[in-house]
Amino acid sequence: MFLRRAGPEDAAAIADLVRAAYAPWVALIGREPKPMTIDYAQALALNRFDLAETGGRLDAVIETAAAPDHLLIVNIAVRPDLHGRGLGQALLAHAEGLARSAGLETLRLYTNQKFARNIEIYRRAGYRIDREEVLANGVAIHMVKTLATPSG
């Protein structure tokens, strides 16, 4: 897997990948999940995007935003035909590296309550449910992970 930082020229490819990755959830929640509705040209100007590529093909993306006390994982999307191959876990590990590089010990993310598979993936990666937020169109599950501080 090759990771590179995304640029404005990647907006359309990111949007296509996200739409494909989130398409299976539409029937479950009765609407397009939020990541499918984002203007990625604008999002690229606000947040960091790292792309996983193989031979120039976009396989996965992680979007992060640094806050003073945590790194927020805004979105992770993996091509559906590559699910189960560890790309999501590798991107979560990458986010941990970004947090450490920024001197942050906490990572946060949120997902839809109905995305049970994703919640379980995050739990196995060391995230815990911090809170639930009732929204007009569902329930957001906010999760948090505190990184171990290096012993020394």
Provide an overview of this structure.
Helix content is 33%, strand content 35%. The model has no long low-confidence stretch (mean pLDDT 94). With 152 residues, it is α+β, with helices and mostly antiparallel strands. It is built from four helices and seven strands, in the order βααβββαβαββ. It is globular, with a radius of gyration of 15 Å.
Task: Please sum up the structure shown.
With about 150 residues, the protein is an alpha+beta fold. The protein contains four helices and seven strands. The chain has a seven-stranded mixed sheet with strand order 1-2-3-4-5-7-6, sandwiched between helices.
| Broad structural category | alpha+beta
Largest sheet: 7 strands, mixed
Distance between the termini: 32 Å
CATH architecture: 3-Layer(aba) Sandwich
Helix content: 25-40%
Keywords:
single chain; 152 residues; alpha+beta; Aminopeptidase; 7-stranded mixed beta sheet; 4 helices; 33% helix
Fold blueprint:
Blueprint: E1 2-5, H1 11-29, H2 40-46, E2 48-54, E3 57-66, E4 71-78, H3 87-101, E5 106-112, H4 116-124, E6 128-135, E7 138-146
Parallel strand pairs: 4-5
Antiparallel strand pairs: 1-2, 2-3, 3-4, 5-7, 6-7
